[in-house]
Design the sequence.
């Protein structure tokens, strides 16, 4: 197979560019929906995690309440026992010791009751937060359902055409050198509009509109080498290769030739 000329390589690259532009335009119909769906899914994960954490905290609080109630029961039983022993004390020392134990258990009960009150308040606060998060979760789930439905409808409408263009793209890739494809993809990824191959229009780059020096314009017209825009880094091609008649350029040339004849 004969080696491809630079002109042929440029033509193939521009054909790939036109295919990618059609794909970009088709996918643009979906707008921000895919990103919105992804963001909503991430938000739902975060909300569910918060709910799980809150519920775990409430479980811990309930365990603390159970433990403190058990402490109250134990201390109450000890107080009953110590008071019963007071009836059988033989000296003041035993009397004071038992009273001291009763006092300690009374304080223990007060501390446990206080702790239960604090934990009850914490549970109520957590339950309020859970209600807020659950309300938001329900709202976002509805939003996600609607967004997914909308995205599915648009995708189904464009899927057949997209598959056709994608097949066309794969065929185009088979005709281009791998190194050129890598360079093309790298340039294309640098721009939001995905334009990596731009025609020269009105003596300026069709991608960034920077003026192109006359010598480079000549090189681009002759298609004897691949020229990269000095300003934006896009691959530049002659307007005619893109099927565009640059009338301004055509008008300028005859005038320049006329001046030379004088």
Sequence:
């Amino acid at each position: 197979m004969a080696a491809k000329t630079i002109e042929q390589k440029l033509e193939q690259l521009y054909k790939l560019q036109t295919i990618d532009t059609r794909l970009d335009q088709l996918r643009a119909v979906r707008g921000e929906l895919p990103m919105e769906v992804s963001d909503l899914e991430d938000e739902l994960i975060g909300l569910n995690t918060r709910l799980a954490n809150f519920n775990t905290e409430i479980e811990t609080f309930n365990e603390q309440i159970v433990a403190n109630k058990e402490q109250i029961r134990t201390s109450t039983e000890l107080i009953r026992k110590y008071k019963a022993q007071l009836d059988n004390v033989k000296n003041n020392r035993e009397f004071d010791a038992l009273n001291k134990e009763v006092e300690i258990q009374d304080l223990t009960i007060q501390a446990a009751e206080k702790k239960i009150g604090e934990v009850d308040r914490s549970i109520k606060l957590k339950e309020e937060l859970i209600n807020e998060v659950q309300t938001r979760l329900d709202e976002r789930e509805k939003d996600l359902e609607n967004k997914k439905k909308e995205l599915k409808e648009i995708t189904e409408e464009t899927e057949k055409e997209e598959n056709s263009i994608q097949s066309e793209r794969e065929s185009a890739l088979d005709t281009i050198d791998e190194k050129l494809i890598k360079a093309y993809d790298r340039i294309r990824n640098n721009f939001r509009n995905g334009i990596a191959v731009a025609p020269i229009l009105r003596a300026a780059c069709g991608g960034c509109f920077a003026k192109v020096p006359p010598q480079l314009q000549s090189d681009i017209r002759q298609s004897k080498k691949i020229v990269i825009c000095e300003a934006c880094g896009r691959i530049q091609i002659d307007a005619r290769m893109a099927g565009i008649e640059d009338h301004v350029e055509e008008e300028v040339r005859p005038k320049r030739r006329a001046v030379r004849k004088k």
The two ends are 49 Å apart (CA to CA).
